[in-house]
Design a protein that fits this description.
Shape: globular
Order of helices and strands: HHEEEEHHHEEHEEEEEEEH
Helix content: 25-40%
Structural class: alpha+beta
Strand content: 35-45%
Number of helices: 7
Oligomer: single chain
Distance between the termini: 16 Å
Keywords: Signal
Number of strands: 13
Radius of gyration: 20 Å
Strand order of the largest sheet: 4-3-2-1-13-12-11-8-7-6-5
Length: 270
């Protein structure tokens, strides 16, 4: 696609994002959170696909530090491993990576099924955002530069609807909102005390936490750039929350919206 074509697409994306009234016109923390969530919901309907570089240490990487090139599609994220623990892959391992990707490109059905079953970090943040206005007490509204900061803690009157909700509802923390875009910038939360779930079959321990940071990577497009998750205890019941994970993403490049899995394989192998 030509640079002029990319520019036109970015300008079109801007028209899809609602114009923002001054954030502090909303008088209460609840109204501000609701206003931000509405913008996030609207933007989710028009989000674009990106390629980017990511470093990750997690259970998925065997607690190694992986550097990957990633391309997004509507069916999931295609990944090409570049380095492990700061060392480029050996020629033999590069060959195996390319073989794995060739299999995905030739027969993407299994890849698509696995990706659809995976709950990513943006889903985790969205689950907390949806709970904030109804399940938490919001307080200590303040401005810090271009950010609006709001603290939250569990509302004891709220009745949780699932095991995952029970863990999320046990957390306290802070959310920051970009005042100009009215978009989520950061959310940080931690458990102040143990949470027992599954009729006592599992316990998630105090100190368990998660945090995400989101930045604007193109006009009207915000992406998660840092993820920190540390769930301590018998968290095997909460695969969607992860356990221990640190991810950093950078070098975002806009991709065509109609990007197929086969096209994404070609992008990450470039």
């Amino acid at each position: 696609m030509t640079s002029s074509g990319k520019t036109l697409r970015l300008l079109f994306a801007l028209t899809l994002v609602p114009s923002a009234a001054p954030l502090m016109q909303a008088q209460s923390p609840v109204e501000i959170i609701q206003q931000m969530v509405a913008h996030e919901d609207d933007a989710a309907l028009h989000k674009q696909h990106f390629a980017y570089t990511a470093t990750e240490r997690s259970e998925r990487t065997g607690n190694h530090l992986w550097k990957e090139r990633i391309a997004e599609t509507s069916d999931g994220k295609v990944r090409f491993l570049l380095e492990e623990d700061g060392t480029p892959l050996s020629p033999d391992r590069v060959g195996r990576e390319r073989g794995r990707l060739a299999g995905i490109a030739t027969n993407p059905a299994d890849f698509i099924a696995a990706e659809h079953a995976r709950k990513n970090d943006e889903d985790k943040a969205k689950a907390m955002l949806d709970l904030l206005p109804k399940a938490f007490l919001l307080e200590n509204l303040r401005k810090e530069g271009n950010l609006t900061m709001i603290d939250f803690r569990p509302d004891p009157a709220y009745q949780t609807q699932s095991m995952e909700e029970k863990v999320l509802h046990g957390m306290s923390g802070t959310v920051s909102i970009d005042n100009r875009a009215e978009r989520l910038h950061t959310i940080k939360a931690s458990l102040a005390k143990d949470v027992s779930v599954g009729f006592g079959l599992a316990t998630v321990h105090a100190g368990s936490s998660f945090a995400t940071t989101r930045d604007q990577v193109a006009p009207g497009q915000w992406k998660t750039v840092v993820v920190d998750t540390a769930i301590n205890g018998k968290a095997i019941l909460f695969k969607s929350l992860g356990k221990n994970e640190h991810v950093e993403r950078s070098d975002f490049k806009l991709l065509p919206f109609e990007m197929s899995v086969k096209d994404a394989v070609a992008v990450v192998e470039q």
